[in-house]
């Protein structure tokens, strides 16, 4: 069951990127930003939810903060590219984003759910390739952002 959940986490961004033609580079960077927010600001966010009387535990809040920017970016950047080479580049970046999503979200699960992943073949292999996966996603994201030729309307005089 753990390998099925990992597969869904890894391949869902790629499937959404393919069908929506979304910008996977921006979604990878949004996921990196969400992870940074969780890492650096989770204590303050937990205090905020306590003051607002919202009955959400920290792991659920962190998972929501992790997934909402990724999904929103994929939905808001639809029809971002066309062409076979860009499709391949965006799908590779989306697979890296899915791998990062799995690497970050599994430790945020409760203790009983995490034990299912400890014996998982997919989880062990994903942890072995985490550094190259994240480096490739970051490099591909930067290349896609830097070399994206946005359409500027012609100025009429």
Describe the structure.
With 157 residues, the protein is an all-alpha fold. It has one domain. Helix content is 77%, strand content 0%. It has helices spanning 2-20, 24-51, 58-76, 84-105, 111-118, 121-128, 130-146. Helix 1 runs antiparallel to helix 4. The radius of gyration is 17 Å and the shape is globular. The termini are far apart.
What's the short version?
The protein has 157 residues and is an all-alpha fold. Helix content is 77%, strand content 0%. Helix 4 (84-105) crosses helix 7 (130-146).
Topology:
Layout (H helix, E strand, L loop, with lengths): L1 H19 L3 H28 L6 H19 L7 H22 L5 H8 L2 H8 L1 H17 L11
Q: Helix- and strand-based class?
A: mainly alpha
- Beta strand count: 0
Distance between the termini: 62 Å
Radius of gyration: 17 Å
Q: Compute the number of helices.
A: 7
Low-confidence stretches: none
Q: What count of structural domains?
A: 1
Major β-sheet profile = none
Overall, the morphology is globular
User: What is the helix content?
Assistant: over 70%
How large is the share of residues in beta strands? under 5%
Mean pLDDT: 87
Order of helices and strands: HHHHHHH
């Amino acid at each position: 069951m753990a390998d099925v959940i990992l597969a869904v986490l890894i391949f869902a961004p790629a499937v959404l990127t393919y069908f929506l033609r979304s910008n996977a580079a921006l979604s990878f960077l949004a996921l990196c930003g969400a992870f940074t927010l969780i890492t650096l600001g989770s204590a303050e966010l937990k205090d905020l939810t306590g003051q607002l009387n919202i009955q959400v535990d920290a792991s659920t809040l962190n998972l929501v903060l992790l997934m909402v920017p990724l999904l929103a970016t994929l939905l808001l950047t639809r029809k971002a590219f066309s062409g076979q080479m860009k499709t391949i580049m965006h799908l590779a970046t989306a697979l890296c984003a899915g791998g990062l999503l799995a690497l970050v979200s599994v430790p945020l699960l409760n203790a009983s759910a995490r034990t299912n992943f400890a014996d998982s073949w997919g989880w062990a292999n994903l942890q072995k390739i985490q550094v190259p996966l994240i480096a490739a996603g970051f490099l591909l994201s930067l290349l896609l952002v830097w070399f994206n030729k946005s359409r500027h309307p012609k100025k009429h005089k």
